[in-house]
Amino acid sequence: MASSDIRECYGETEVEKPMLQHKSSSPEPLSSLLEDTLSDGSLPYFQRLRRATWIELNVLFRLAAPAVVVYLLNNVISMSTQIFCGHLGNLELAAASLGNNGIQMFAYGLLLGMGSAVETLCGQAYGAHKYEMLGIYLQRSTVLLMATGILLTVIYAFCKPILLLLGETESIASAAALFVYGLIPQIFAYAANFPIQKFLQAQSIVFPSAYISAATIVVHLLLSWLVIYKLGWGLVGAALVLSFSWWVIVGAQFVYILVSQRCKHTWQGFSLQAFSGLYEFLKLSVASAVMLCLETWYYQIIVLIAGLLPNAEIALDALSVCMTIVGWVYMIAVGFNAAASVRVSNELGAGHPKSAAFSVVIVTLSSFIIALIFAILALILRHVMSYAFTGGSTVADAVSELSPYLAVSILLNGVQPVLSGVAVGCGWQAFVAYVNVGCYYLIGIPLGCVLGFKFDFGAKGIWSGMIGGTVMQTIILLYVTFRTDWVKEVDKARIRLDQWEDSKESLLTE
């Protein structure tokens, strides 16, 4: 059953659904109302379509909205630290920016990507009602990410010579290193947080994380003000508070897991099974990390390449404004990315091929419509939006010229992250990693350099080439996604879960 034929996907014929067994002690299974609606041949086609759309939108936005809030709030935590440091002086601002957007972003992307392996396995296990395996997957992922954190600590420890090697001045490299040393505890907070976050999202538990992030911002702002300005701890104090705030998020979420009735079947204590099957888990985690890192680094490279242009100051300023806008809108797409992953993995695990295919259509269209609205706003406000960042009319004119490229990038970011979320839900991370390498780094970046430097199109040429890479990647993912045989994906999910599930030896139970 190919999903390209939408009528066949949720049409007249009933599709045999693999029945995945679950323990009698498990909570009530997720409603199969969507699958039943799509399979109800007694209803007219368009009535089925209308009912199914209403059901899916209700489920989707209850997932996507709080996920967007979580990513936005977590972004604000890091941004507020930069703002506090900026009031200490230009050197401190440069150091915090380098630490946050350079060294720290590398660790964030790597660990978040590795944590996405939990998204695939937990989502499918939850849909299959194999609830006890979610806690095992959470622990396995945390073990691997903590081990990766030890390796990242070495990079943090030697960040000063790395920055000097990249051409930074001695003063900036020294100040940035001081800031980065204070971020070392944050590495291990990431290593604990991302598996927990994906563990909760797989169960459609997203509102508690949003509340926790909102409360943490208040704590973070108060502590930052106290430590930086009143106690005079400067850059080190700012970084340590940032690390502490992430540990507050981790602690609060884990306490929620321990005390919440919603997690009583999915978390059954620490287990020795966390240390089994690590190699297979590592392979999926590495594929997830490569996929995500190649995506998150791609648009950052635009700014780096633009710095090599002659008289690059205005181009850099304009691109920085545009990339900041893209970044904030991207947070919305990331929320839909998480929702797509949860919906697809849950439905595949539950043996609902029609629901999985239908969810892909609805989440992609929803994200695209929202992106289209923001793209239109970017064009309407192209002459004034830069004044939120700088008062210079020269930069405003440059941003206005780049606004069509900004609008196209916003539109693409409304689709591409969602398709990546679908890939995570299906377990296609390795395939998407190869696609990203080819489209982004073998086509997009070289094409951008040729247009920008060889043909003297400057920043427009660089951005055009990289948009071309994104368009190609999006077309490939659209083709693969909407040609997918979802019945076979259900079978693959069942086989994957059977391979990963084994006897559980609990060391500590609630």
Characterization of this structure:
- With 510 residues, this protein is an all-alpha fold.
- It folds into two domains: 63-276, no CATH class; 284-503, no CATH class.
- 78% of the residues lie in helices and 1% in strands.
- The chain has 18 helices and two strands.
- A two-stranded antiparallel sheet has the order 1-2.
- The radius of gyration is 23 Å and the shape is globular.
- The two termini are 44 Å apart.
- What is the CA-atom radius of gyration, in angstroms? 23 Å
Total of domains = 2
Strand and helix order: HHHHHHHHHHEHHHHHHHHE
- The overall average pLDDT, rounded, is 86
Biggest sheet features = 2 strands, antiparallel
Strand order of the largest sheet: 1-2
Uncertain segments are 1-31, 502-510
Q: How many separate helices? A: 18
Number of strand segments? 2
The proportion of residues in beta strands is: under 5%
Distance between the termini: 44 Å
Structural class per helix/strand content?
A: mainly alpha
Q: How would the global form be characterised?
A: globular
- Fraction of residues in helix: over 70%
